[in-house]
Amino acid sequence: MNYKNTINHNCNIKCPKCNHTYSYDFKLEDLKKNNNKSRSLENCYEFLIYLICKNPLCNYDMEIKGETIVSSSNTLNSIKITSIK
């Protein structure tokens, strides 16, 4: 089962190429359920998004992977970025 609600999120992300840190606003949509990390009262969902570095001299395409924890009442508990490439 996937999480169908759209999540708007803002965070600072450091580009792995140029090492500049910028604030990014992005949407998390169609999150995939991670059955390995699901708990009885919470569900874990994975996401994969692509962002472009805001440094005009870089413009590197970043791959952002992470996970969200959603309670059984469908409340978002946390968002965690697990890798930036």
Summary tags:
85 residues, mainly beta, four-stranded antiparallel sheet, two-stranded antiparallel ribbon, 6 strands
List the helices and strands and how they pair.
Elements: E1 7-14, E2 21-28, E3 32-33, E4 42-52, E5 61-71, E6 76-84
Antiparallel strand pairs: 1-2, 3-4, 4-5, 5-6
Share of residues in strands: over 45%
* Radius of gyration over all CA atoms, rounded: 14 Å
Fraction of residues in H or I helices: under 10%
Give the biggest beta sheet: 4 strands, antiparallel
Strand order of the largest sheet: 3-4-5-6
Q: In angstroms, what separates the terminal alpha carbons?
A: 27 Å
Low-confidence stretches: none
Helix and strand element order = EEEEEE
Shape verdict: elongated
Helix tally?
0
Number of strands: 6
Structural class: mainly beta
At a glance:
With 85 residues, the chain is mostly beta strands. It is built from no helices and six strands.
Structure notes:
The protein is an all-beta fold. 0% of the residues lie in helices and 58% in strands. The protein is built from no helices and 6 strands. The strands form 2 sheets. A 4-stranded antiparallel β-sheet has the order 3-4-5-6, with no helix packed on it. The protein has a two-stranded antiparallel sheet with strand order 1-2. Strand 3 and strand 4 form a beta hairpin. The protein is elongated. The model has no long low-confidence stretch (mean pLDDT 88).
